[in-house]
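Researcher: Let's run the pair from yesterday's discussion. Sequence first, then tokens, for each.
Model: Starting with the first of the pair.
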Amino acid sequence: MSLNQAIPPNLNAAGERKLNMQPLILDGKTLSRTIEGELAQKVALIKEKTGDVPALATILVGDNPASVTYVRMKGNACARVGLRSIKVEMPENTTTAQLLEKINQLNNQPQVCGILLQHPVPRQIDEQACFNAIALEKDVDGVNTASFGGFTMGLNSFVSATPKGIMTLLERYNVEIKGKEAVVIGRSAILGKPAAMLLLNADATVTICHSKTVGLPEIVKRADIVVAAVGRPKFVQADWIKPGAVLVDAGYNAGNIGDIDLENAAPLSSAYTPVPGGVGPMTIATLMQQTVLSAMRKAGLE
């Protein structure tokens, strides 16, 4: 099936899932490679027009093993797309002032079209102050508070990569969003809140749930689209799911386990994101997309 074709008709006229119909797997790994191929063509066009190779700069403070892995994966994606990867490594005892100085230097480097500060940073650093120091036109992870405000107001600001990747996944698999009821479980500034705003901008009716929500299972049972981003393994249970719902599992816990009990919930759905291979690859693909978009804007191609 093409990634732009409609979802197979696995619901009946009443909106109920047909018997013996397999749910659609929203394969982020496959889609991310398709997107990378599209981006490689755009990077080649940028190189042809400008003679320059646009760069994504990643800043890693300390040596958190997971962060080291994520930075390496982003560097590998840059290579596949044709971007230059600039890896800035700073010691664990880096101060806020030192990090701000480095961000300012990257802001002033013309070939750097995207800046990513790997989260989390050591506790002594004012993370949000450093996020807000990233130039808006280079904020390809959408972490600057002005970027968040911009896209909520319908401006062309960059968006947090994971929620933007979720929306791309839904759109490219032609999952209907307009008029649907969506429930987002989780209210973090980089995932839950922007995911809710993006769904709202796509004309869904959105409910945001969190740790203080009363009657969570009953709320989730109403949802046509469920986005789980709570960081708790198998938190969302199968008996919470309305038959035919679309399940987006943005969680990744030890043992390759997501936030939804997919083993039991996925068969009830019309479509779902696997863990791993669903949302995760789309986060990196979105970082590449937004870096290339920044480079195209700079080159006058967008």
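Model: Moving on to the second of the pair.
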Amino acid sequence: MTNKNAPIGVFDSGVGGLTVMKEIMHQIPNEKIIYFGDTARVPYGNKSKDTVLRFSRQIVRFLKTQEVKAIVIACNTASAYALPDIEKEIDIPIIGVVRPGAKVAAQVTQNGKVGVIATEGTINSHIYADYIKKINAQATVIGKACPLFVPLAEEGLLKEHPKEFQERATRVDYEAVRQYREPFLRTAFDVFTEKKGQEETAYKEFASQEWVYEYGVFRALKKANNGECWNDWPEEYRTWPENRQKLPAEVETEAQYQMFLQYIFYTQWMKVKKAANDAGIQIMGDVPFYVGQDSVDVWGGKDNFLLDTDGRPIFIAGVPPDYFSATGQRWGNPIYDWEHMKEQDYRFWVDRIGYSNKLFDIIRIDHFRAFDTYWKIPADCPTAIDGEWIEAPGYEVIDTLQKEIPGLDLVAEDLGLLRPEVLMLKDHYHLKGMKILIFSIETGEKYARDTFDDVENMIFYTGTHDNDTIMQWYGNMSVASRRKIRRMLKRAGASQGSVKDRFLQYTMQNQAEYAIIPLADILGLGKEGHINTPGTIGSPNWEWHLPDFIQAKKELQKFGRLIVDTKR
């Protein structure tokens, strides 16, 4: 028989469930409550159903050892994923928060529309929509996952979840996004400071990295100087990395805020990475060969670059005339001072790649060829035509990186016209190279053919962020060329489904070690899915946004079956 004086058990993935416990105490004030907040494994929303179920079972077993008479799951994700199974397994009442919440929402809505803000796991389960529609079949349920703000709320840094923002937008308005999120992040920082979050061990360890405070100061000074390039700041700020003089109070506070943002990003990113790695997924990140002039890298490490006395580039990076531009690409990035870097044992590169190695499992070096030879353009030249190729100490740098960073896994972006020495450098370290589908297929002869050797030590892309989507590329071809390509795909065994599906099948059955396919190609988008045009800046580059998650889910499910079929 259940002991009436026994406590009620309440658990959540974090501390957000304390609001549920507070309401229980209000409704039945004489009851004893045992609260379990799984802050070690928060959040649950980005974890698989099986993982959430396993965590929930562990917590339920613990609460039963405390002889509770009932259990309340105060976590939406656990209520969605675990409650149906657990309530069959235990002999005491167990209650979730979804059904009561859905019931109230269905009853109180005046226009038949209900908004749900929750973790990705809760939204993807559609459990609120299912319960609400059982009560009110005519109701419209709009779900919005807030992966950034939910953890901030669960950690007690925000009192409530922000409302959805431009959910159906087809392009990203970065300035609008910044303005929208800024007040929430400022509030979270204020609460973090009040709770003395800077004294927590995890934050101290993060902030102790040399770059963190320097970055915070750089961002704060940039704000104090109306966003101007650091070269145009007052002398004491231009030279702050060398002098480290005391900053005005408002600048120091802003620097601490910027450090807080980096800490929040880092902790959330590492949770994403852990969830991916736990599921057997590796994350590959890009590291550009060069850095921007108006960056903390140059401001804080001027000796690593060829600069004049004002800190402005003497020479800049780019490439000569190529496929993308008749006048070459004039990137504007400052050129490295390799002699100085050698004197410092290439510490700049060790620190840069070393930190990236924490964030990613595989690192792709964009413009890898510059480790062999780089295009050096006088800064006063208006185009990239008047440059020259200069040899770089690639072997020395990569030897140092491999010595200093155990387990480093690099991928070389080896596209374009390259001298043989670049490929020799890549092959010396057994680095994976790249093959681009839309660059490898030749249609000028009687039959279309793949001109690229099908080798294993490479990554096969349908295209990158710089290229046309495969359907944009295919659509721009002549009727005859398209016919040749379809026949080529058929000969290769890729004959099922739409042309887009056949392209994906051809890519996935390739012998390359990895295949990478942009989401725009999985969706079969044309020009509207083009992400970036090299040699140009500003809108619409990098503004592509996925508005239709329902269609994306269908295409990804189909793509998942293709992965299984091709044994990827």
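Researcher: Give me one sentence on the second I can quote.
Model: The first helix runs from residue 18 to 27.
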